[in-house]
Amino acid sequence: MLSRDGELPEASPVRAARAAGKPVRLVWVNEVGGQTFEVGHGAGRHFLKWTPVSSGIDLDREVARLRWAARFTAVPTVLDQGRDLAGSWIVTAALPGQSAVADRWLADPAPAVRAIGAGLRALHSALPVSDCPFSWSVQDRIAEVRRLAGQLDPARWHPEHRRLSVDAALAALREPPEIDRLVVCHGDSCAPNTLVSVEGSCTGHVDLGSLGVADRWADLAIATWSTEWNYGPGWSQELLAAYGIEADPVRMRFYRLLWDLAPDPRGPRSARALIRAAPDPQRSVQRDRQAELGSDPG
User: Fold this and answer.
1) Signed CA dihedral, 11, 13, 17, 20: sign only
2) pLDDT tens-place string over residues 41-68
3) Are 71 and 275 in contact (CB under 8 A)?
4) What is the C-alpha separation between 30 and 121, in angstroms, rounded?
5) Using one digit for the tens of pLDDT, what is the confidence trace for 266-288?
6) What letter would DSSP give residue 199?
């Protein structure tokens, strides 16, 4: 069944929400067919994230991580989950705040960048390494890259890595830098996954499908890189200052390369390339190839 725009297949729980008379708005679409919807308003407002069977994305990973992290920090509360022959979905309560790539923060990035840095430091401080059952270790990620080396395509990498051959890229990952500090990493610390209040403070995080124990630079390298994708050059130092750390070019280069090569355990790498629906339903859909929705399940 098609959605109301006549192009996108509509998930069965979305059809049920419409049939119950609830307002439903498509807010996010990714390139493997996944969709996120805002359902309802006021106190009952929530988000429904649906992914088709063909995407290969495992939403159970995200549910497990959300439920664990919710004991320690502000992440979306899982209200429901399900699956049918077409796909699977999770339903989460809305958190306060807007995505750090909402229009107001794209126009005025400084408060959002500081919120990302301070919010990431708070996340790393709040989540207990000793209690975390999930790993995002550099050894596991490198092993997976090597296992799938035959599928690596430099044409899909970030421009700063495309000059490398597959062999050269793998060689650059051979000796990881020493661990600076083990923390429970977000796992996808791109700007859109931080929520920001109107005052400019972090109100929570979304999209925790890769959360796990790793060096804090695995998150910091991508958070700073993401500021370039979303706000333009020159924001990395602002984010690091808000986190309370000096730049570490060696670790940043390493973890950015690993990010570019590593498969996403939630599903195909192309699932990171997303189309964001404009907040005003009358506006056209906009593309943001490195972003995920802020105040949804991710």
Assistant:
1) positive
2) 888 899 999 999 888 888 999 999 999 9
3) no
4) 28
5) 443 333 334 444 343 322 223 33
6) T
Strand partners, 48: 37, 91
Cα dihedral 193/54/48/115 (nearest 10): 0
Q: Which CATH class is domain 98-265?
A: alpha beta
Closest by Cα among 246, 182, 244 to 219: 182
Place of tokens 């929520």: 195
Nearest alpha-carbon partner for 272 in 280, 283, 264: 264
Q: Which residue is listed with tokens 């931080």? A: 194
Among all residues, which ones are annotated catalytic? Answer: 188
- What is the band of 35 on the pLDDT scale with cuts at 50, 70, 90? confident
How many whole angstroms separate alpha carbon 145 and alpha carbon 162? 16
How many CB atoms neighbour CB 20 within 10 A? 10
Give the whole-angstrom CA distance, residue 276 versus residue 100: 13
Which 3 state secondary structure label does DSSP give 45? Answer: coil
